[in-house]
Amino acid sequence: MNLTAIIIAKNESEVIANALESVKFCDEIIVVDNNSSDNTPLVAQKFGAKVISEKTSNFSELRNFGKESSKSDFILYIDADEVVSTELRESILRVINSLNFSDAYKIKRKNFYLGKNEWKREEKMERLFYKPNFLGWSGSIHESPNVNGKIAELDGYLLHFTHRNLSQMLLKTIEWSDVEAKIRFDSNHPRMSWWRFPRVMLTTFINYYLMQKGYRLGSIGLIESIYQSYSTFITYAKLWEIQVKNQGK
């Protein structure tokens, strides 16, 4: 069995080298470049990756585009700010060299905010797929995979170095809040009243600071929790703006 790593990237020249280095064990590397204005494609090419250009705000389309371009039996998805740990790499290799494998695998992910500060809550997500039984992705931003078959779990961790600095965090909110607001509007979200704003902001803050135990990281946990609350506010404020503009139409 052979393996393709697929990386979706946009203006990630500062970090994508680490991701590419961590998947050098794969038989094929595909970088789906989403209209980068920096040197992301050049960095990818230096690592021998196949670079495919595709401009869209729909993440499922980007991931499916990479899938269709893959020539391998297995597909591994990672993001440009993620790194495959040594233990995870060995676990993946055991799977693809085994005669008894599942159709998809969940991978545990550790998140690091503002540097190497590990968030206390881990995630699990399907990222490794046996291509013949992998139907593709659906959803524009919070995309989800569709698998026909059994899903298992791998050993090891995917390391996610997100929200590297405050400027990058704010730019991300500005860029993607428009898309998220439009999705909510198209889904006929209830009209935004004044009381909805503090409710969604407080819910988000409680989730990150208390439920996900952000308080254990001190100032960083507080900053991240407030930022997530702020990001939620911007998304719903833009939703309110769209609703006002379309009132009576």
Q: Features of this protein?
A:
single chain, 249 residues, alpha/beta, 2 domains, 9-stranded mixed β-sheet, two-stranded antiparallel ribbon, 7 helices, 11 strands, 27% strand
Can you offer a commentary on this structure?
- This protein has about 250 residues and is of the alpha/beta class.
- It has 2 domains: about 5-160, Spore Coat Polysaccharide Biosynthesis Protein SpsA, Chain A, CATH 3.90.550; about 165-245, no CATH class.
- The chain is about 40% helix and about 25% strand.
- It has 7 helices and 11 strands.
- A hairpin with a 3-residue loop joins strand 6 (about 105-115) and strand 7.
- The longest helix has 27 residues, at about 220-245.
- The model has no long low-confidence stretch (mean pLDDT about 95).
In short:
About 40% of the residues lie in helices and about 25% in strands.
CATH superfamily (homologous) name of the largest domain: Spore Coat Polysaccharide Biosynthesis Protein SpsA, Chain A
Largest sheet: 9 strands, mixed
Q: In what range is the share of β-strand residues?
A: 25-35%
Structural class: alpha/beta
Oligomeric state of this protein = single chain
- Total of DSSP H or I helical runs spanning 4+ residues: 7
Radius of gyration: 19 Å
State the CATH topology of the largest domain.
Answer: Spore Coat Polysaccharide Biosynthesis Protein SpsA, Chain A
Please report the distance between the alpha carbons of the first and last residues.
Answer: 55 Å
Uncertain stretches: none
> Could you spell the SSE succession in H and E letters?
EHEHEHEEHEEEEEEHHH
Query: In total, how many domains does the architecture comprise?
Result: 2
Average the pLDDT over all residues and give the rounded result.
95
At CATH level 2, the architecture of the largest domain is: Alpha-Beta Complex
The level of helicity is 40-55%
CATH first level of the largest domain: which class? Alpha Beta
Overall spatial form: globular
Number of strands: 11
